[in-house]
Task: structure prediction
Amino acid sequence: MATRDNDSLSSDPDIKKPGVDIQLTAEQFQEYMKCIQDPMYFIKNYVKILTIDRGVIPFPVWDFQERMIVNFHESRFSIAKMPRQVGKTTCAVSYLLWCILFNEDYKIAILANKHKMAQEIVSRLKAAYRLIPKWMQQGVVVWNKTDLELENGAKIVSSATGGSAGRGDTFNLVYLDEFAFVPSAVAEEFYTSIYPTITSGATSKLMITSTPNGMNMFHKFWKDSENKKNSFKRVDVHWSDVPGRTDEWRIETIMNTSERQFQQEFECEFLGSSMTLIDGRKIAQIPTIPAIHETRDGFSFYEHVDREHTYVMVVDTARGTGLDYSAFIVFDTSTVPFKVVCTFRNNNVHTIVFPKYIMEAAVYFNSCYILVETNDLGQQIVDILKEDLEYDGLISTASKKARYEATSGFGIQSQTGVRTTKTVKRLGCSTFKSMVESDSLLINDHNLLEEMSKFVYNGKGSYEAENGHDDLVMCGVLFAWLTTQPYFKELTNTDLVRSIYRIGTEDMDDMMVPFGHIDDGRGTLGTSDGIDYWTSD
Result:
């Protein structure tokens, strides 16, 4: 069998060549059988690592590392949230090495946020391979920077987590390293393409390890695993699990970096961007829920329609060229807290087709009211809905006494839809912040939450996406603006301001510490109009 020689394989004395038979002794055969049956036995006894201070040594597996490797082995879907520099790559490499040595025709994909990082993992696996006894090795067929193939048919391929990575192929195991650092749009497209390659087999595995990096897809998988809403089995590693990392080490690390950096890199907190519209601590506490139904077009439904409820849809339009998203959110406005019950998000839908999706969702949700943002192509959406589809529930706006207000649409000055002026956006942002932070709006949708975590002050008196998109969050902002309008009360029979005030005062009552009166002999308790007071003697 021909050998592809990319790394001087033919002259490497530590690597077994294909076609070379080695007769095992009785002791070696027993050891080989023990390794086949137990990956931890193999790793603890035969995997070696190169250290800066001590050179090549046996891999000293710590307790949390053993938990992680066992989780890899026993679970089809495993996810590990880990601080920096805790040996996660060494653990993954050790287990992958066991997989290809002792399983015939076993195919593994190593995918990282950068191609160079994926190659680094392959390089470390090859280094570990060189250090195991030659009698335990399989003959090497392919040995280069990105791929590895053994004589037993086992293969490893590596790549960056691009949208098409792994598409059209099948794997026994896919390892995603530092998945939280893959850009959100790429991560979503990538996961959609890679997941079918795993589910084609009954025992195929997906391993994910990462340090947190905001409210992204890794955050969603982790939170859903925490709430038993997906199949991932989780391993949570804390910096103090690493031997030698004491409080003194923590203090020194913070002094040399920053408190925020330590929280993300070592405490493994899911921090949003700084200077967000919504307080970062609040964002970290907001729950999301799995959609009860999702479509490839971009719909996510979180509740079925209730024929007794009132709904409002807010629409934000993009050009459908694969950049910004055309989006809308349907809100249940029957009671406070309001709820996100449906979202739509698609960056390829044409503006001529988009009204069809809007119409379908609006009719389903009791022919709900629709507010369309008209700054760019939104006016075209309004015209199609109004003139071609003859939809009656469109909300209009008009300038009244130097104010921009929502109206029923009657009057010379009214226009269908809303323009996002500085005043509208400012009021919408402040109201959206109040609604979310007072729990008067249930977010539910993870894409909306992710956008909120990156919706930051731009230094010019407004807020926008720090990176990525803010199409859904702008739907939330425009909905918040709408709730301040007198016309909204007519549509929904809901007074948001009173509800927020009621919720706020209830929270204050809950936080009040009960106290009693102390009679020190210097005063007398009296009562007037139901209020207790003290009078001096």
